[in-house]
Q: What sequence folds into this?
């Protein structure tokens, strides 16, 4: 463990930021997996529903600075291509 006051604070801040990032990142990952699962099952209706939810989760993560704009665009593009290719 760090023994300098500022280093101790950084450790605390990093832990809090990590919790906050996971708060947005975990639902995003789950939503993406649900879309991919629906695509593999060839369930067009379920995939479209899951896609809407995934887009919302991805946008939320981007708005809160967890992922960058280009990452958002890449995720959305790949998911949309997968659903449209069904």
A:
């Amino acid at each position: 463990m760090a023994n300098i006051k500022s280093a101790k604070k950084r450790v605390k801040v990093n832990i809090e930021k990590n919790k906050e990032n996971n708060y947005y990142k975990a639902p995003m990952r789950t939503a993406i997996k649900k879309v991919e699962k629906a695509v593999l099952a060839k369930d067009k209706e379920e995939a479209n529903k899951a896609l809407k939810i995934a887009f919302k989760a991805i946008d939320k993560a981007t708005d809160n600075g967890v992922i960058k704009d280009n990452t958002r665009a890449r995720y959305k593009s790949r998911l949309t291509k997968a659903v449209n290719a069904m």
The domain at 5-84 is CATH 1.20.58.110 (Methane Monooxygenase Hydroxylase; Chain G, domain 1). Residues 5-40 form the longest helix (36 residues). The radius of gyration is 17 Å.
